[in-house]
Amino acid sequence: MHDLMKELETRKDRELQAKVEQAEIQKSLKELERNKISALERDKRRELEKLAAEREGLRLREEEVMDDIKNLEGKMLEQERATKEDRNRKINEVRDNGYFNKVMERPDVNLARNRGEEIAQLQLKKE
After folding, report:
1. What's the number of domains the chain is made of?
2. CA-CA distance, 73 to 60, in Å (whole number)?
3. What phi and psi values does residue 77 have, to the nearest 5 degrees?
4. Is the pLDDT of residue 100 over 70?
């Protein structure tokens, strides 16, 4: 009987030891799971910070490009204005120079102008 009691006590000790070990294993697993979640959250936070930095970089680059476009548009408008002023200045110089009037008063130019007018009138009559 003493052996049976001893065996029963040993069995209870083993069961108790197994329960304690199982509880420790469960506790360790839960701790690992918390650490894993914590690591995933840190990774996610790092990724979000990286994406925020990239987005800010893209926003700054977009501002630079928009500024470049505005500068180019301004230069283009200034160049167009300067070209138009230069063209008008040259036209006025030619007109003021009298050369234009002299050319237009030449007999061959007058003859060509008159013939052009006559041809235009004949075409109107045909229509």
Report:
1. 1
2. 20
3. -65, -40
4. no
User: Is-contact 94 100, C-beta < 8 A?
Assistant: yes
Q: How many CB atoms lie within 10 A of CB 100?
A: 13
What is the residue whose two structure tokens read 């049976």?
Answer: 4
* Residues 72, 66 contacting (CB under 8 angstroms): no
Q: Strand, coil or helix: what is 106?
A: coil
- Percent of residues in the chain assigned helix, strand, coil, to nearest 5: 95, 0, 5
Q: Which domain holds residue 8?
A: 2-126
Average pLDDT rounded to a whole number, residues 90-119: 72
Please identify which residue in the block is written with the tokens 């500068």. 71
pLDDT tens by residue, 39-65: 888 889 999 999 999 999 999 999 999
For the chain, what is the mean pLDDT? 85
Provide CB contacts within 8 A for 100, sequence distance 6+. Answer: 94
Whether residue 76 contacts residue 84, with contact meaning beta carbons closer than 8 Å, is answered with: no
Q: How far is CA 54 from CA 39, 65, 90, in A?
A: 22, 16, 53
